[in-house]
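Bench log, entry 3. Co-assembly request; chain sequences pasted below exactly as received.
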Amino acid sequence: MTKALDKATADALRAQEKAWEANEVAGFLKKAGETKPAFFTLGDFPVKRTYTAADIADTPLEDIGLPGQYPFTRGPYPTMYRSRNWTMRQIAGFGTAEDTNKRFKFLIAQGQTGISTDFDMPTLMGYDSDHPMSEGEVGREGVAIDTFADMEMMLEGIDLEKISVSLTINPSAWILLAMYICLAEKRGYDLNKISGTVQADILKEFMAQKEFIFPIEPSVRIVRDIITYSAKNLKRYNPINISGYHISEAGSSPLQEAAFTMCNLITYVDEVLKTGIKVDEFAPRLAFFFVCQADFFEEIAKFRALRRVYAKIMKERFGATNPESMRLRFHCQTAAASLTKPQYMNNVMRTSNQALAAVLGGCQSLHTNGYDEAFAIPTEDAMRMALRTQQVIADETNVTQVVDPLGGSYYVESLTTEYEKRIFEIIDEVEKNGGVIKLINDGWFQRHIADFAYETALRKESGEKPCIGVNKYVDGTPDPKIHTHPYDYSTAERQISRTNEVRKNRDNKKHEELLKQLLVVAKDPNQNIMPVSIELIRNGATMGDLVETLKTIWGSYRESPVF
Amino acid sequence: MSQPIRVLLAKVGLDGHDRGVKIVARTLRDAGMDVIYTGLHRTPDEVVNAAVQEDVDILGVSLLSGVQLTVFPKIFKLLEEKGSKDLIIVAGGVMPDEDAEAIKKMGVAEVLLQDTPPAQLVANLKRLVSERGPR
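Structure output for the full assembly:
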């Protein structure tokens, strides 16, 4: 271990800082005090007046390192945006597959380089569009997908070998992946060459986003099956996107977001390893998703710490030997919960600042939110401006020229190390208390998230957490009228008629046989659920067919809420 | 001392966004109200039945999935069928202004949008109950 400073130099610097506090600072404070008695990050980390080399004297230089080198603090790749910008991946989806296909093509025409799919609530929760629970929700918050025919339509005319597709879906993720595989096969793609991502991170659903179907154990088993199947058959595909974003949006602190996500990672890796597959056979394709909130330097430190923590977990705990198993790659989204309805155009500035922090933090892909998201799902105009925000950062600011330009900042390095330490402390605490699944059942994560959310609400109320247009610079002038995304009430009818068409034309005898086979596979935890699911989808099964069949043996999950 | 105000909070529809409703639940509980929270993914039927059975003053419905114009007409129809007259309905969540206006016309007493300060929340609900008068 190499230290940045020898002890004598560090001590001399500390003495100098102490004298500075006693002389220059004290003298200045007598004339004009500071605005607050103490300063904290948004995530409650105390911050000093300024930082010196002494503050990082105990961080081993090896932990900072170089981009593309273990422990990847400074970035997963050695050249980062000098070779290729992050993927500009705006999430989109509404109405039927045709409606969403048009939006995708619009975004691609605007220079977007990847796509990410927002599904409607019934699809996310595993209901067909004609299920009673789906009423009013079909195609409302995202695109409605019931069958392979919908998937085919949604991606019609989009070259999947050029544009990578992210499927933002969790409890029913394996069905969407099955559809994607059927589509790739039908188009004659080499499955081992297609890229893309499916979110499939069920643990954070139980903790935060609350989209679930089955109880925790079978739900985790499905995720395990997606990962092991992909490791063998879809070598370039990211079979999971382990996500802190929703934990943060549900109200957690940035530290909780980071630490809970790493706890979930450990749980998934443990589950997959139990099948006998080696860590280096699947770890290189594990992908992550984090929010970028408003505290600029804290977020950058969080991303850097996460890369370091991940590298250490994979190498030291799981014995990975391939460097690709140790480099954390992440998608980033700006913080929707930071957006406001009053003075809504301010959301453009908020998003721009957050996007810049995401880029300085070294994200691999980025979604910037629309300014209208405190009203409804975004319009085309709002999405265009959000995309242009990324393009301005990429092409006009030159921040892409130097890899990890904040590396070596005394403040950022010090906060990075502090984050690393605290993340590992929370991982230890979770393990001592029985691990992720037990603590989800106990409501432990849910309570921590709700607590921070409540504190944040109180801080906004008191003004301690300023929010322009809400508790500061509140302006009596009405905002310009906003046009929100309209909902087409013919959506459900159009959607259900296609689903019925598929049901009518499929081989029903084969369908029934395959459903029986699905139950056999599901009851045997040593089997993988993917192959029979792919068969079912290819034969015209609906999502609801698979989900309702499995509910007969697995039941449904119902949360006992804590607040 | 008068009876504490009784509130039933519910998430209707399929969305799982429960940050807001839980902040509301805790705020009202801390202000001394009796708070029941149904949890997620409830149907209008379940929610109305629970509100009537629990004899609450206020039914708060939170949704962020955009289904307000489907859900609230159902709730009012069910309330009418049950002959419930003095139950105060409030809504919370993310929705366009036009929709907030539309559900107010249907009979929603108050639409609590994001960033409503906790103290204002408590004051508004107390005011609604006092305007209703004793039952």
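The radius of gyration of chain A is 24 Å. The longest strand of chain A covers residues 286-292.
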